[in-house]
Specification:
With 283 residues, this protein is mainly beta. The protein is 0% helix and 48% strand. It is built from no helices and 22 strands. The strands form six sheets. Strands 1, 2, 3, 4 and 5 form a five-stranded antiparallel beta sheet that branches.
Length: 283
């Protein structure tokens, strides 16, 4: 059997090109060869092996090319959003979340010339730390979630890290949220109502009626409560704890009417508590 003599060269544009390195002889028993680059070539790099036996017969084989990557995915334009949901008609506000069994989120903006192959997603809190690698889109939004949870109220962090084809990790991008699964509570204090006949002004005040671990806002309504709910006199959304309305007493019955104030305290997690108080008004 004739001993084979093997040569190899590398190229940066196509098979058979020797612009990066010309033929270099290697021993027939070698099973690998390498090239140290002085600078990183652009585009793909191909390796070609040419084997020639003692009879002068030659066979050439080339790789399918490889792109040399030195930088991880860029995070300059990344946007990470927690997709909060509420079990009530009130949307969550700020960074508050109410569902303690599932966290959904989406992201976009990880950038790499070679594309982003996958993502490392993670959820961390006082008593939890979980992560997994998921596939995603390198353009548009990618979506993911952690399900089957049973986490306590508190502060948590969701993070996403982009991974390119050569397993280089980007910087970690994080978003925080506050989990609150309980509505505001009643303190036992009542809504205070007053009537000022001189100015025909009905006033309701609910300072210290509600308490919550997160910010609240209020929906307040006033109705003439004759024979049930009655006509709506005024409705407003407010962060204040006082409401004044001026009533038209010209058509008010001499026996007076009842003004029913309803105050609904809504936390930024979308949960609420409601209380009422009546005010008897004489014209």
């Amino acid at each position: 059997m004739n001993e084979s003599v093997c040569y190899y060269f590398l190229k940066g544009t196509s098979e058979g090109d020797a612009s990066i390195q010309g033929f270099v002889m290697i021993q027939s028993h070698q099973i690998n060869a390498s090239k140290l680059f002085e600078s990183i070539p652009e585009g793909k790099v191909f390796a070609t092996i040419r084997c020639t036996n003692g009879a002068g017969l030659t066979h050439t084989c080339s790789s399918d090319g490889v792109k040399i990557v030195q930088t991880p995915p860029s995070v300059d334009n990344v946007l990470l959003e927690i997709l909060t949901t509420s079990p009530t008609q009130y949307e969550t506000r700020g960074h508050h979340h109410v569902n303690n069994t599932e966290i959904r989120f989406r992201w976009t903006g990880f950038n790499s010339d070679e594309g982003v192959h996958s993502y490392l997603i993670a959820l961390a809190g006082d008593q939890i730390s979980i992560s997994e690698i998921v596939e995603g889109s390198s353009s548009g939004y990618s979506y993911a979630s952690f399900t089957g949870l049973n986490i306590d109220d508190g502060e948590y962090t969701v993070s996403v890290t982009g991974i390119n084809e050569v397993k280089m990790y980007s910087q970690k991008i994080s978003a925080n949220f506050v989990l609150v699964t309980y509505p505001p509570s009643l303190t036992g204090e009542s809504v205070i109502t007053t009537w000022t006949k001189r100015t025909s002004t009905a006033t309701a005040s609910w300072d210290n009626v509600f308490v919550s671990t997160v910010p609240m806002y209020y929906e307040v309504s006033a109705r003439l409560a004759e024979g049930g709910e009655g006509d709506l006199v005024q409705w407003q959304e407010t962060i204040n704890t006082r409401m004044e309305i001026v009533l038209d007493t010209s058509e008010m019955p001499e026996a007076g009417v009842i003004v029913r104030f309803s105050v609904r305290a809504i936390s930024h997690s979308g949960l609420f508590k409601i209380t009422h108080n009546n005010l008897f008004v004489l014209p």
